[in-house]
Design goal:
heterodimer, A: 114 residues, mainly alpha, Helix Hairpins, 65% helix, B: 501 residues, two-stranded antiparallel ribbon
């Protein structure tokens, strides 16, 4: 239970960072932290104390109840790839914004108003 | 009926464009247009063939059966959404052929456009929570990139804002999906619904409701979550604005909300009340913020916030009449808001500005744009022969008959506000005194054609209200949304309930 709470705390750290930080790069990092916490949560769901690899093979007779859940692990792989994409895209945007505005400070990047 | 072609045809088109059409830009447009036309035709075929399949077609995407694999599900609601999305996509792509001459990297544009379409078709068809998330991310990625397509400072700023908010809420959705999985041990939507129905209401479900309302509410641009829309939608190139405001917010937002909360969770009252509140706030705040705008496209962006509120309150009423109104307004808004965005694009193409203070007296020089914009204005403000009248009337009647008289009155009053801000557009852009902006270029043929077709559709689509058509084609959709367990019951025979193989 304590692990789940800490995982949720990590999620909140990410949310806090994304909301309060003014630096574009720090916002990207905060979003990354949120993503890590969700990935950690999904891996925790799959974990079972003392369980083994989910492989069905002759000579390796592991009962289904003694296997870790493979589905969240597959999900985490996909979600890591998606996060890589979003981080790369946002970093590219941040670089282009820096070229235009000469700053990473979001309080100075506000030509859109109203 | 192979459902995966809705996904692989645009995906294939995107990759073909990137591989072969980098130098030949007309070839890129041809591939994109062919792919759009193909899936538009197939979506019509699917819509009319659906009743003979008993109202549901389910394809497993591998040799396994659900819940051990991902499934694609076509039912009345999703086939209707496919038509809306692919119709707007086809016309926007047709419009873009000549509009995009003002930008460099045409092939890039069409490749991203096709990826966005892939994601939207995937979201509509999928029957799996995690697959929904993946397709949502595919279309959002392309949307972020397309918003920044002009690479001017405002566009990059808007794209970053959109990407930040989109990424935070997508993570929340994934978190919600994780919680649901931990409770039900399945990701197939119908199976989740089945487990929740038999297992009572656990307390954790309210956390999932909250995460999903925040997540999909941001994609819908409901009011506390709307701040990105008036920046992002105007910054994109006009055909993309038409796609974003016309269909993206409805597919990723309204459709996903309806599918999850009505079909899977069985329309919990607390969620309907929250959606009702958020919808009403959207109508009022979006409407009043539109009046003070001077940027043509920004005004349309705020107007989208206001109009999406009508769609959401229609669904949130939970009565058959309200849902009918919601579905109709979703369809009609897709048509007239795309038309209005394409018009604003034509004005920008011709005069190189979209500031209403500089425009004026364009009706003589841009005849087609002016006329179609008038049709769009009359439709969105709900003037009788045009389509917007019928959907708004149904929503207002549904509000009153459901006892929500205050909301009905608000909806009716904001409809007048809508007319007010669109008359402002008419006065300052097309009629009135001649502004400082001059017409530099003629609006080309493809752009005109797309606008004329959409304007004609504004009138023709009112024909859905003829009772026999409504009974045959719209009532099954309403039943799909209303019948809170019919979706689960229809998928249940396909479920493989045996032990792990």
């Amino acid at each position: 239970m304590i692990l789940y709470l800490m995982c949720f705390f990590l999620f909140l750290v990410g949310v806090y960072g994304a909301i309060t930080k003014r630096d574009l790069i720090k916002i990207i990092l905060a979003i990354g932290i949120m993503g890590y916490s969700v990935n950690l949560f999904l891996v925790l769901l799959a974990y079972r104390t003392g369980a083994l690899v989910p492989i069905l093979k002759k000579g390796l007779d592991i009962p289904a109840s003694m296997m870790v859940d493979p589905l969240p692990q597959a999900i985490v792989l996909t979600s890591i790839v998606i996060e890589l994409g979003i981080t790369a895209l946002m970093a590219a945007l941040a670089i282009r914004i820096y070229q235009k505005y000469d700053t990473f400070d979001i309080t100075k990047i506000r030509r859109l108003q109203g | 009926m192979i459902l995966s072609q809705f996904i692989f045809v645009p995906l294939l088109a995107a990759f073909l464009i990137v591989l072969f059409a980098r130098k030949k830009e007309n070839f890129a447009a041809a591939i994109a247009l062919a792919a759009c036309a193909w899936i538009l035709i197939v979506s019509f075929i699917a819509f009319f063939k659906l009743p003979s399949h008993g109202g549901m077609i389910l394809n497993n995407t591998s040799g396994w059966k659900i819940p051990y694999t991902i499934c694609l599900i076509l039912d009345n609601l999703s086939s209707f959404m496919l038509i809306v999305v692919n119709l707007v996509a086809f016309l926007s792509a047709f419009y873009a052929i000549q509009y995009i001459n003002h930008f460099t990297g045409k092939w890039n544009f069409f490749a991203l456009f096709m990826l966005m379409l892939t994601g939207m078709n995937g979201v509509i068809l999928t029957g799996d929570f995690f697959n929904l998330y993946v397709f949502m991310e595919i279309s959002l990625f392309s949307a972020y990139a397309l918003v920044a397509f002009g690479t001017e400072s405002e566009e990059l700023e808007a794209a970053f804002k959109y990407a930040t908010m989109g990424a935070i809420t997508s993570t929340m959705i994934l978190f919600g999906i994780g919680i649901l999985y931990s409770y039900t041990s399945t990701l197939t939507m119908a199976d989740v619904g089945l487990q929740l129905r038999s297992g009572g209401t656990p307390k954790m479900i309210f956390l999932v409701y909250g995460l999903f309302i925040a997540g999909f509410g941001l994609k819908t641009a409901l009011v506390p979550f709307h701040a990105w829309l008036p920046d992002a939608h105007p910054s994109a190139p006009a055909p993309i604005s038409a796609m974003l405001s016309g269909v993206l917010i409805k597919t990723l937002g309204v459709y996903a909300l309806v599918r999850i909360f009505f079909n899977v969770f069985g329309a919990p009252t607390v969620v309907l009340q929250i959606l009702m509140l958020l919808g009403t706030l959207s109508i009022v705040i979006g409407g009043f913020l539109s009046i003070v705008q001077w940027d043509f496209k920004r005004l349309l962006g705020f107007s989208s916030v206001s109009q999406i509120g009508y769609v959401v309150i229609g669904f949130a009423l939970g009565t058959p009449l309200g849902i009918l109104g919601g579905i109709l307004h979703l369809f009609y808004h897709a048509i007239f808001k795309s038309l209005l965005f394409l018009d604003s694009g034509a004005v920008e193409y011709a005069t190189d500005t979209r500031d209403l203070r500089q425009l004026g007296g364009l009706s003589k020089e841009l005849k087609v744009t002016s006329a179609t914009n008038m049709v769009g204005t009359l439709s969105i403000s709900g003037i009788p022969p045009f389509n917007g009248f019928f959907s708004k009337l149904i929503i207002i009647i549904a509000c009153i008959s459901a006892g929500q008289i205050v909301i009905g009155i608000i909806a009716a009053l904001v409809s007048i506000v809508t007319l007010a801000y669109f008359l402002k557009v008419q006065k300052h852009a097309f009629y009135g005194k001649k502004g400082s902006a001059k017409v530099l270029e003629k609006v080309p043929f493809a752009m005109k054609t797309a606008m004329i077709i959409l304007a004609a559709l504004c009138l023709i689509s009112s024909a859905i209200m003829i009772p026999s058509i409504r009974k045959n084609y719209l009532n099954p959709i309403v039943e799909t949304v209303m019948g809170r367990t019919s979706y689960i019951d229809k998928v249940e025979p396909y479920l493989d309930n045996g032990s792990v193989k």
